Amino acid sequence: MDGEVAVVTGAGAGLGRAIATTLASAGMAVVAVDLSLQAAETTVAAVTGAGGRAKAVEVDLGTANAGEAIVSAAAQAFGRIDVLVNNAGIYRPGGRLPDLDWDLFERTCAVNLFGPLRAMIEAGRHMQPGGRIINVSSMESLRPSGPGIANYSATKAALNALTRQAAVDFADQGIRVNAILPGLIHTEGTSGAAKQMFDMIAAKAPSRRIGEPRDIAGAALFLASPASAYVNGHCLVVDGGITISG
């Protein structure tokens, strides 16, 4: 993987930063994409501080030209793109269906679904055979955790289907497409959750703990590496067994 280039969206914190630094530790140059340039630069500092190469890029994944902007930045910085990790996403409850927040639903679709789609299309035009695309979906695409998150669960379920279809559509180009479905993970986004909830879920999970960003980063490294050369169109659940615990 030395000399290859990975683009990671939503790289400014949490899962994205862990994925970016993990891929960099495997020898890849990283384009850290985030809505906040300052957050992306923090990830770049972590990569370069460990001796890696990285470039920070500010892009709103919900805009129509997001895919072009990401690929252009990668080409200008490193001249190529080998791995795309679509990690950016919105997780905000949009209300129960009778009281649906339509503006939030549409914004969630723009970032969680159309953003990865645009990025895949543009990256696919520039990747050589052997390119890899990794979409970060969610366990909640399989089983919503509660009411009021139709905007999130629906877009992530659609991303799963898009992942499988993309694996078929990119097959002739030799590009593999897979997805990771994280369970509950300790991140900035979940830091406000009650400890009681974490303890209850951890007690039910066969792994007896809540996930950490490194757990998802490890899965991303696997899907980006030659070790997963025969894995394609797969949605990999990484949740410590929560989805089978009832």
UniProtKB/TrEMBL annotation:
Superkingdom of the organism of origin: Bacteria
Stored CDD domains: SDR_c
EC code(s) of this entry: 1.1.1.47
Keywords recorded for this protein, A-Z: Oxidoreductase
Keyword Protein biosynthesis applies: no
TM ranges: none
Gene3D superfamilies assigned: NAD(P)-binding Rossmann-like Domain
GO molecular function, one term: glucose 1-dehydrogenase [NAD(P)+] activity
Family that this chain belongs to: Belongs to the short-chain dehydrogenases/reductases (SDR) family.
Protein name: Glucose 1-dehydrogenase
